[in-house]
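Before relying on records like the one below, remember that each one covers exactly one chain. Contacts with other chains, cofactors or solvent are not represented anywhere in the record.
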Amino acid sequence: MPLLRKLASSFLATALLFACRLAVAECRIAVLGDSLTAGYGLPLAEAFPARLEAALRARGFSCSLIDAGVSGDTSAGGAARVDWVLADRPSHLLVELGGNDALRALPPEQLERNLERIVEAARARGVPVMIAGMLAPPNLGREYGEALALAFRRVVERYGLAFYPFFLDGLVGRPELFQPDGIHPNRAGVEVVVERILPTVEAWLRASGIEPGR
């Protein structure tokens, strides 16, 4: 009997360890963003989170994407609802905000504070964060554009975050990749965004212990 108890205890300990490792390896990425995340003008299956999930799975990453995009949202809106998003228990948080701050010429210092609020909330729950940045429209002037870019970089450097500087990289100057409004990517544009951002997302996941095949 003592031997059976010892074997049972050993089996239980091994099972618990295995379960803990599975929990650590779970990959559920919440994308906290605006209309670029929500997939404005597109079916949900063609929105950025769905297409990124498909791309990651094609690369062997068993990740589920949570679309937490709200059209028209600013960084303040994202900061106000980050606790609600984190309540869904994502393993990772990808932040795509700042475009509407720039369109409304809101103070870059405000963007910085809001991003800090989001990062702090995620870190308090042990959730790794990646930032997808945005550039200001040229008509707002060089000074504003530099200040906005600096706000992103300050937060990224302060917290040592994974960073993709410009969410719409590869689309500017290519009207065929946008919807008629000239602001939101069409289906082909979303595919370009996913293709460009994928290496950064993969590196971020690997750095947090998520590997293909898990």
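Residues 2-25 form the longest helix (24 residues).
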